[in-house]
Specification:
heterodimer, A: mainly beta, Immunoglobulin-like, 3 domains, 5-stranded antiparallel beta sheet, 3 helices, 33 strands, B: mainly alpha, Serine Threonine Protein Phosphatase 5, Tetratricopeptide repeat, two-stranded antiparallel ribbon, 37 helices, 3 strands, TRAPPC13_N (chain A), Trafficking protein particle complex subunit 13 (chain A), TRAPPC13 (chain A), TRAPPC13_C (chain A), coiled coil (chain B)
């Protein structure tokens, strides 16, 4: 028996090199006729390079994580004897496990000369590194002799993508995720799907399309694919779900944001799919008491009072009794009484606070100088650089 | 462990960012830094470096990009990570790694020991040979691989050219008539020639270009030349036709024996539309003088062009010309009639003007104008502005099929292989066409070479002054086109090189007012320009191809604009009838379309799919009748990228377009597209069904036959697949012995059994009967 294995990557389209001439040239219409007679050209458009003829893969090629490894396994009886009880087994040995890929484990009763047993195996590759396809054949010869042989085919599985992420924490509890996906294979890659599967705490909005006239248009334009080494940047906005947003204390420390699910296709629809591990993010630490801004004008007039609204949340496990102090800085002057009592604040509850202030300096100014003191523990929390505001002279703003 | 990797790569990124900070202007291509201000970034970078040793969790809060562990494919990653999951994973993976190592070692041992007991050597398709098959010319492969292939090509060329360059006295040379051998034998003693032979030798190494050989000569200033120039070098025979040639011209009978009678075909061939009835009898004579003139020395960097004289490149020194005015005056007399401007204007046919129109560059135009205006004075033209082509290799004859037969089937079988060669056909255009149509392109290249040698542009003639005629350029075109067809791109490039950018003044008819009186435009056929522009892309320089195609596009567009404005093609004020103008617009539109086609093909080769698709769309404007084919082609491009949805959209458009026209062809196209779509969706069974559908309509459709067979293989039906392919090859070997089909067939033979060798040899025999010497034997995989 003879054993042969061939990896079935997708076939490729035959390309030809068009050489044309004109009627008045020396060869007349000879070149054009030759191209017409060539079966691999497109009839009626012979100059088109990309033909329709499929050719089988010429070498093993590369295989990448997440792709499907397909292989043809053929056992052929090259002898002139009938052999019996043929059992073909195909296993894939990876660094961590051994998988059986054979479609059927039943033995074939007999194989006549010049006949063959065919099998096409498929396996979605889930590990990087060395894989060994182990094919074993056992059979009985006519003389009753038990025969057994094995063959090994080794191949490397490579990483197709490089994914990098980056988080931005917005004031409003939203989290923005930038994900850079780089094609580190050697062929163009069509990104069929890149989505963020959020963890249970978040809702996700994909920010990779622009709505124009009711039609969503990809921010990547008509270029639907990634050339080798190209990187694409995807942007997602994650909002904590209502029930979690309320309890500000919950989103604390390292949280699981979700994972990216990536589906791509290459030559003739060869498909690959990967997911990242859970993306994690360190939620900004708010300490025991969190002060966040609800409203603030972006531009204000010089030396004119303006209002801001703050939200004060108790992130600790105990009730607090808070006193608000307002300290003026070089530019920011608070209006109103400093040292006023805000009353008791229970864990995970919050209160809104309207404050008035003015700036004496033009330009981009930082709102600073709020102090909260918990009278129970005599602990003071300082809040500086809460927000920025642009201060302009009143004449400019009016004009 | 990969987690560890992740960390270290992000660390790398940090340092890279810092590097970027330092070398501010340098933009690293892979560094898509996010829109952070430069200042911010710097502090950012510093921070991360200092914190690099801190724990992993801290890093998550930074503004830097993190490498993410791509765990596994989704099906495998149930192990959702909690807060500690990440760290656990690292540990796990590290452990796994350790286990791996030992395991892998164990496997290796197992692997080795088992290898010896199995018949390892006879598995050509063995998967363990990962990526070793560099020879494969799969176009879909990466850019990197394409680049890799380039030096590969370079390696191929010396193998083919070296022997040719070395053996100068091949039988072919001896076969040549005295008239053609004579010039070369006379050229030999001229010391200059040795320089060129050196240049040629150097040229057998692909990376060395001829200009290196030229340079020492071009340095000389024109003022020196007259001093250095010695009359000894000059060959007085220049103006006298060699005996055999004059005999030939005197004798109209077609003797059909030697290369000398190529002139016959030149004068009788219907495509030659030269032109001057007054001079008709003397044109050949003059040509012979031209071709001999080409042997003159060439150390002179400038050449006088004297309008009263027939030949520009011929007499190399002005000194010489004034010394020997006699023979020229004889010829001049013949042309006396052509001095009449009206007669010449009439001579230029409508067709010639339309086809040969081309817009030269400013510089070239100036030279041409001065040639036209300075009737009897000498125009000096820099040598580097002249075109001095010559064969760079003698003979690429050879029959790979026969060689293989000798190797595998023995001498007896090989003897049976009979193909036409350059000797077995008429030494004329007729013979040339015969060789081309019988697919003996190597022999045809050879014959072109002989005919060019007769023109004085033979082997080693590169860099020597040459005269050009419509025919010599057509011969060059055919030769170069065939070299491209044979994938001998380096050879084509070498021989193209003396032609520069095909814009030198001596490539225009205006340069030869006496040979082609009144005729205007370019001698270079448009198709040769296309070929010239396309060539670099096959040598790994598609950008150059695009540049050349763009300048062609500009000229075509300019010509069309001129026509629209009521001018002649070249912008001159010539009256053209409406009918002729229409015909001209049509011709130039189709030429512009041809240029766009090449651009699209080139962009496709560059894998710039977006631009390629745009370019194909614009081709549709010029060739509306090809719309369905082109739309299908675009659809296939999207399939290749993997964008099945867009492909489907295009295929639907094709169905809309073809809906209007019915007919077999469009029906086939629609079915074919559907099959391809199923292929893209991994549904080989359906794809097979549609390919079979096509066969019901057109049972001899090679593509459908082949593609159906390929689908069968993917469905695990090797035997059926083989049967289909074999049936098809036997049914009509004339058409189906195609490279791609045979490649598929041999691949399946290899998969099928150990007897693939015999079966391949049977294919070789079939090929030997049907195919010419241009057959690419690589697809038989017998090597």
């Amino acid at each position: 028996l003879i054993f042969a294995v061939m990896r079935l990557t997708k076939p490729t389209l035959f390309t030809n090199i068009p050489v044309t001439c004109e009627e008045r040239d020396l060869p007349g219409n000879l070149f054009n006729q030759l191209m017409k007679d060539d079966p691999s050209t497109v009839k009626g458009a012979e100059t088109l390079m990309l033909g329709e003829m499929l050719t089988l893969p010429q070498n093993f090629g590369n295989i990448f994580l997440g792709e499907t490894f397909s292989s043809y396994i053929s056992v052929h009886n090259d002898s002139n004897q009938v052999v019996k009880d043929i059992l073909v087994k195909a296993d894939l040995q990876t660094s961590s496990q051994r998988l059986n890929l054979s479609a059927s484990s039943a033995a074939v009763a007999e194989l006549k000369p010049d006949c063959c047993i065919d099998d096409v195996i498929h396996h979605e590759v889930k590990e990087i590194g060395t894989h060994i396809l182990v094919c074993a054949v056992s059979y009985t010869t006519q003389t009753g002799e038990k025969m057994y042989f094995r063959k090994f085919f080794k191949f490397q599985v490579l990483k197709p993508l490089d994914v990098k992420t980056k988080f931005y924490n917005a004031e409003t509890d939203e989290v923005f995720l930038e994900a850079q996906i780089q094609n580190i294979t050697t062929s163009p890659m069509f990104m069929e799907k890149v989505s963020l599967e959020p963890s249970m705490m978040y809702n996700v909005a994909e920010l990779n399309t622009v709505d124009t006239a009711g039609e969503s248009e990809s921010t990547f334009g008509t270029r639907t694919y990634l050339q080798p080494m190209d990187t694409r940047q995807y942007l997602y906005c994650l909002k904590p779900k209502q029930e979690f947003a309320e309890k500000a204390g919950v989103i604390k420390g390292v949280t699981v944001i979700g994972k990216l699910d990536i589906v791509w296709k290459t030559n003739l629809g060869e498909r690959g799919r990967l997911q990242t591990s859970q993306l994690q993010r360190m939620a900004p630490g708010y300490g025991d008491v969190r002060l966040s801004l609800e409203t603030i004008p972006d531009t204000v007039n010089l030396e004119e009072p303006f209002d801001i609204t703050c939200k004060i949340t108790n992130c600790s496990e105990r009730t607090m009794d808070l006193v608000l102090e307002m300290c003026n800085t070089n530019s920011i002057h608070w209006c109103g009484v400093s040292g006023r009592q805000l009353g008791k604040l229970h864990p995970s509850s919050s209160l809104h606070l309207a404050l008035t202030l003015l700036s004496s300096v033009q330009g981009l100014q930082s709102v600073s100088g709020l102090r909260l003191t918990d009278t129970f523990l005599k602990r003071t929390y300082e809040y500086d650089d809460i927000a920025q505001v642009c201060v302009v002279s009143s004449e400019i703003k009016q004009s | 462990s990969s987690a560890k990797d992740a960390k270290s790569t992000s660390g790398d990124d940090d340092s890279r960012d810092i590097v970027q900070q330092k070398t501010q202007e340098e933009i690293l291509f892979h560094e898509e830094t996010i829109d952070l201000g430069g200042d911010e970034f710097e502090s950012e970078g510093n921070e991360t470096v200092s914190e690099d040793s801190n724990n992993f969790v801290d890093k998550l809060n930074e503004q830097m990009m993190e490498s993410v562990i791509i765990s596994d494919s989704p099906n495998n990653s149930e192990d959702d990570t909690g807060e500690l999951g990440c760290l656990q994973e690292i540990v796990d993976q590290m452990e796994a790694k350790d286990n791996q190592k030992t395991q892998a070692e164990a496997h290796k041992e197992e692997f080795l020991s088992n290898e010896s007991e199995t018949e390892h050597e006879e598995t050509p398709k063995d998967i363990s040979e990962i990526g070793t098959d560099d020879q494969a010319s799969l176009k879909e492969d990466s850019i990197q691989e394409a680049v890799k292939e380039e030096p590969k090509l370079g390696n191929n060329v010396p193998v083919e050219t070296k022997p040719n360059n070395v053996d100068e006295n091949t039988p072919e040379d001896q076969m040549l008539s005295p008239s053609t051998t004579k010039p070369s034998s006379e050229a030999e003693p001229i010391p200059v020639c040795t320089i060129f032979s050196q240049a040629n030798n150097a040229n057998s190494q692909p990376q060395l270009f001829l200009p290196d050989g030229f340079e020492p000569q071009m340095v000389k200033s024109p003022s020196f030349s007259s001093i250095i120039e010695t009359p000894v070098k000059y060959n007085p025979q220049v103006v006298q036709p060699s005996p055999s040639l004059s005999k030939f011209f005197g004798d109209p009978v077609n003797t059909n024996t030697l290369a000398s009678d190529f002139f016959d075909s030149f004068t009788t061939s219907n495509f030659i539309s030269v032109s001057n009835p007054n001079a008709s009898s003397s044109v050949p004579e003059q040509m012979s003088s031209l071709s001999n003139g080409g042997d003159g020395s060439s150390s002179n960097p400038t050449f006088p062009v004297q309008n009263g004289r027939p030949e520009a490149g011929g007499p190399p020194s002005s000194l010489e010309i004034t010394q020997s005015p006699k023979p020229f005056s004889q010829i001049q007399a013949v042309f006396a009639g052509s001095d009449d401007p009206f007669a010449t204007a009439l001579n230029m046919s409508e067709l010639d003007r339309r086809n040969d129109a081309w817009i030269p560059s400013e510089e070239t135009r100036n030279v041409l104008i001065s040639v036209a205006t300075q009737q009897y004075s000498t125009v000096f033209i820099d040598k580097e502005n002249l075109t001095m082509p010559g064969l760079k290799f003698d003979n690429i004859q050879g029959d790979a099929v026969k060689d293989l037969m000798l190797r595998f089937l023995g001498e007896q079988a090989a003897v049976k292989r009979q193909v036409l060669n350059a000797n077995s056909v008429e030494q004329s255009f007729v013979g040339l066409k015969q060789l081309i149509s019988s697919k003996n392109w190597r022999a045809a290249v050879d014959l072109c070479g002989r005919l060019l040698t007769a023109h004085g542009q033979g082997y080693k003639k590169s860099g020597l002054p040459a005269s050009h005629t419509t025919d010599s350029l057509q011969l060059w075109f055919v030769r170069l086109a065939l070299l491209v067809k044979l994938d001998l791109f380096h050879n084509a490039e070498m021989e193209f090189e003396p032609f520069g950018n095909l814009d030198q003044p001596d490539l225009y008819y205006e340069y030869y007012p006496n040979v082609y009186p009144g005729r205007k435009g370019s001698m270079v056929p448009f198709s040769m320009r296309i070929l010239h522009a396309e060539l670099p892309q096959y040598l790994g320089n598609p950008q150059e191809s695009l540049d050349r195609l763009h300048s062609m596009k500009i000229i075509c567009a300019k010509i069309l604009e001129n026509l629209e404005q009521g001018l002649a093609e070249d912008g001159s004020m010539t009256n053209i009838t409406q009918e002729n103008r229409q015909a001209s617009v049509q011709l130039w539109r189709s030429r512009l379309g041809r240029v766009m086609y090449s651009m699209a093909n080139c962009l496709l080769m560059m894998k710039d799919y977006v631009l390629a698709v745009d370019a194909y769309h614009s081709v549709i404007k010029y060739y509306p009748q090809q719309e369905p084919q082109l739309l299908s082609g675009i659809g296939r491009i999207f399939l290749q990228i993997g964008d099945i949805k867009t492909a489907e959209k295009y295929f639907q458009n094709v169905e809309k377009v073809t809906h209007k026209l019915d007919g077999l062809q469009s029906q086939i196209m629609v079915l074919m597209n559907r099959a391809f779509l199923h292929l893209g969706q991994n549904n080989f069974a359906e794809a097979h069904r549609f390919f079979t559908e096509v066969l019901k309509i057109d049972s001899s459709n090679a593509v459908a036959n082949n593609n159906a067979a390929v689908c069968l293989l993917y469905l695990g039906k090797l035997k059926d697949s083989l049967r289909q392919l074999e049936g098809m090859v036997q049914q009509d070997p004339q058409h189906y012995l195609h490279e791609s089909v045979l490649f598929n067939l041999t691949t399946m033979y290899e998969l099928e059994s150990s007897r693939s060798m015999q079966k391949k040899q049977a294919l070789l025999e079939a090929v030997a009967v049907k195919e010419g010497d241009s057959f690419n034997t690589q697809c038989l995989k017998l090597g």
